[in-house]
């Protein structure tokens, strides 16, 4: 991954010329190009709490490895309900397609994530069902049964308690065509089934398929007049696309090409009933077809409530004019059994969902629908009122399903930070800091620190509220060795970035530098911060929290107290002079490479600085125990060394 990122950096000019206004880009995560996600609110107050989970893909079959050195786009992504990116999961599986990405809150007290990872383009990997912690660490990779080509993309349904999970299976078989009145012929068909797997061991606990149980004539895709398939995979005659299980231990499956939902006995695998299609066992006041994502909402011995996305048409015609989410109530205690629609959610744009999709009730009674193509999704109140629609800005991507749910993300990886210095002379240098923390929810603020050398005390240089995935902060002066703390709503430090060197222009003169020297040298952050603070206090400005707030930081007493407030901009400039003198000494030492001389010179110049600045602040005497270990490396290399994730 590190080399991939390096390659990307080197080739970024070529990439930038592509049409890409529909993708986000980040200074801190240059390897990621997340899709822009457009949200239209209709009634925000009534929306359910939570984040939106999508897994954009460009094409269902895996992309060829030659495409791999593009920046990361496809994979699992989390957005908030204003469209802000929360997590770009595309680097996690190296741009592999992922499907059925959702929050999983039925395992223990912690939130988890699950998704299906697709097979590799060269068929070297079959894909798997992934269970990931709220720290974005892989907890389980549930493997495919040996004789299957891949972990089927439709479903990775982790059941209550997290011990077992359901998946769909597609397997090829030769069947006799007697059912089509052609007893002397055989054809290859794709048999649809499901498995219940042990999440810990991938062991198959239950296995069922349509062979000998669902007759060819139930299919609406293949008919008695069709020519036989002489090779694999053959007729995809049932096309299973969803499986769920109720407390009684029976399984609900959706077969798209029979327009039917089936309840399969957990005892003996027999078909308990059919809902929909030509052989429905129910008296029903509605139709559905080409359905997706059938799930139990509730189920007891006699009554079942089921949610399903009714795609309502296929390539050959529309059964209804618009796709819809349906909540269906079944009563199996009466004769005939009845099926009634108790909620219908029509697609807000009255369109038809041409590809895939999902439909789920939310815990607060709202509904969330994934209409799939271009990520089109909508949230509705329990009475059906439209509250929100969303879609990718890009028309090049879709998501198989999309979900909404509550989630708390706490990445183990620290926040990513990049700092750059700009300026035309010593008096106007500013340090531009970008910070992000991929996957973290609930960050409300960033606090920024700089050090005068790698092991120096972090000096607080300012803070700003988090307003987007990536936050920018502009600090006065040339701050080097910069770091940032992510702060939650209670003011707690959630995590701290690595300490990063500040990048400089490759050529100061061509970047507009007109100062006396050939470019600035880093400022001592404690001097700048103190001077800055003094000048801001004296000028009475402090409405914003930027750069004016000093905190009680256990790692540093060097922020100290402000002794006097009648110092201002002139002193700020003086402070920079002192800082520069100290830095120069430091610079000389670097050349000589002698720690002893270094300590001597710093002793002298540092002492002078102390004298001048005693009136401004009490500064803790610093102890230089360590010569920066990354000295001598070009800035770019240092940055990569510190951010490179293998
Ligand atoms: C199942 O649910 C229905 C509807 O809520 C209720 O009328 C019925 O009594 C329940 N049956 C059992 C066996 O709990
Ligand atoms: C579909 O739309 C057409 C034309 O708008 C209308 O005539 C027809 O009744 C509609 N069909 C259904 C099932 O709503
Ligand atoms: C339903 O899905 C099928 C297969 O993806 C698609 O061909 C069809 O157009 C979809 N139906 C509608 C109403 O768009
Ligand atoms: C930062 O967020 C806090 C809490 O939401 C708010 O009170 C404050 O005004 C914000 N500060 C700025 C500069 O927007
Ligand atoms: C700093 O800490 C002291 C003692 O813990 C406390 O009294 C003071 O209010 C704190 N100041 C700020 C700005 O939090
Ligand atoms: C900071 O100063 C206080 C009081 O002067 C002292 O008790 C504390 O140990 C110091 N903390 C550090 C990290 O030096």
UniProtKB/TrEMBL annotation:
The chain crosses the membrane at residues 592-613. Residues 636-646 have a biased composition (Basic and acidic residues). It holds the Pfam family Arylsulfotran_2. The keyword Flavoprotein does not apply. Residues 554-564 have a biased composition (Low complexity). Residues 1-16 form the signal peptide. Keywords: Membrane, Signal, Transmembrane, Transmembrane helix. It comes from the Eukaryota. Residues 537-564, 623-646 are annotated as: Disordered. The keyword Transmembrane helix applies. InterPro entries: Arylsulfate_ST, ASST-like. PANTHER family: ASST-DOMAIN-CONTAINING PROTEIN, PQQ ENZYME REPEAT PROTEIN-RELATED. This is ASST-domain-containing protein. It comes from Penicillium olsonii.
């Amino acid at each position: 991954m590190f080399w991939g990122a390096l390659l990307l950096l080197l080739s970024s000019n070529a990439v930038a010329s592509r049409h890409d206004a529909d993708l986000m880009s980040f200074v801190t995560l240059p390897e990621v190009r997340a899709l822009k996600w457009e949200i239209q609110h209709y009634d925000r107050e009534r929306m359910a709490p939570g984040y939106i989970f999508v897994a954009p893909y460009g094409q269902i079959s895996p992309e060829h490895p030659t495409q791999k050195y593009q920046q990361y786009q496809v994979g699992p992504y989390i957005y908030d309900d204003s469209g802000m990116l929360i997590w770009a999961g595309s680097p996690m599986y190296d741009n592999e397609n992922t499907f059925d990405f959702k929050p999983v809150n039925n395992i223990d007290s912690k939130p988890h994530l699950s998704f299906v990872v697709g097979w590799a383009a060269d068929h070297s990997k079959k894909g798997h069902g992934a269970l990931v912690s709220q720290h974005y660490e892989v907890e389980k990779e549930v493997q495919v049964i040996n004789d299957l080509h891949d972990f089927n993309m439709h479903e990775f349904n982790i059941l209550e308690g997290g011990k077992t999970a359901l998946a769909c299976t597609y397997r090829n078989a030769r069947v006799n065509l007697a059912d089509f009145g052609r007893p002397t012929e055989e054809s290859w068909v794709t048999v649809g089934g499901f498995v219940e797997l042990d999440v810990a061991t991938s062991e198959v606990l239950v296995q069922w398929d349509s062979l000998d149980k669902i007759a060819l004539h139930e299919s609406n895709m293949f008919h008695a007049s069709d020519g036989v398939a002489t090779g694999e995979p053959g007729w995809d005659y049932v096309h299973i696309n969803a499986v769920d299980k109720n407390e009684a231990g029976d399984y609900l499956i959706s077969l798209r090409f029979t327009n039917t939902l089936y309840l399969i006995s957990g005892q003996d695998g027999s078909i308990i009933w059919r809902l929909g299609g030509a052989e429905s066992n129910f008296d029903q006041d509605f139709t559905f077809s080409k359905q997706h994502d059938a799930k139990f909402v509730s189920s007891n011995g006699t009554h079942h409530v089921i949610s399903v996305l009714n795609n309502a048409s296929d390539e050959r015609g529309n059964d209804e004019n618009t796709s819809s989410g349906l909540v269906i109530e079944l009563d199996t205690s009466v004769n005939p059994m009845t099926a009634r629609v108790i909620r219908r959610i029509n697609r807000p744009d009255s369109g038809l969902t041409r590809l895939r999709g999902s439909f789920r009730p939310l815990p607060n009674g709202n509904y969330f629908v994934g209409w799939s193509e271009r990520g089109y999704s909508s949230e509705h109140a329990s009475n059906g009122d439209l509250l929100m629609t969303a879609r990718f800005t890009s028309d090049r991507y879709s998501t198989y399903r999309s979900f909404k749910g509550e989630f708390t993300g706490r990445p183990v990886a620290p926040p990513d930070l990049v700092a750059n210095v700009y300026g035309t002379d010593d008096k106007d240098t500013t340090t531009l800091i970008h910070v992000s923390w991929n996957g973290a929810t609930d960050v409300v603020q960033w606090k920024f620190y700089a050090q005068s050398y790698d092991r120096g005390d972090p000096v607080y240089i300012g803070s700003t509220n988090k307003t987007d995935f990536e936050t920018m902060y502009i600090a006065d002066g040339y701050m080097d060795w910069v770091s940032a703390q992510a702060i939650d709503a209670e003011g707690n430090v959630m995590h701290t970035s690595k300490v990063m060197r500040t990048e400089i222009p490759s050529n100061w003169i061509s970047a507009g530098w007109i100062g006396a020297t050939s470019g600035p040298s880093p400022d001592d952050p404690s001097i700048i911060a103190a001077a800055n603070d003094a000048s801001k206090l004296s000028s009475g400005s402090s409405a914003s929290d930027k750069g004016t707030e000093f905190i009680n930081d256990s790692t540093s007493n060097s922020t100290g107290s402000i002794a006097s407030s009648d110092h201002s901009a002139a002193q700020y400039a003086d402070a920079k002079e002192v800082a520069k003198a100290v830095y120069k000494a430091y610079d000389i030492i670097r050349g000589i490479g002698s720690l002893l001389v270094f300590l001597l010179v710093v002793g002298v110049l540092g002492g002078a600085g102390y004298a001048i600045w005693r009136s401004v602040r009490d500064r803790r005497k610093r102890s230089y125990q360590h010569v920066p270990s990354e000295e001598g490396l070009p800035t770019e290399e240092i940055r990569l060394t510190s951010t490179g994730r293998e």
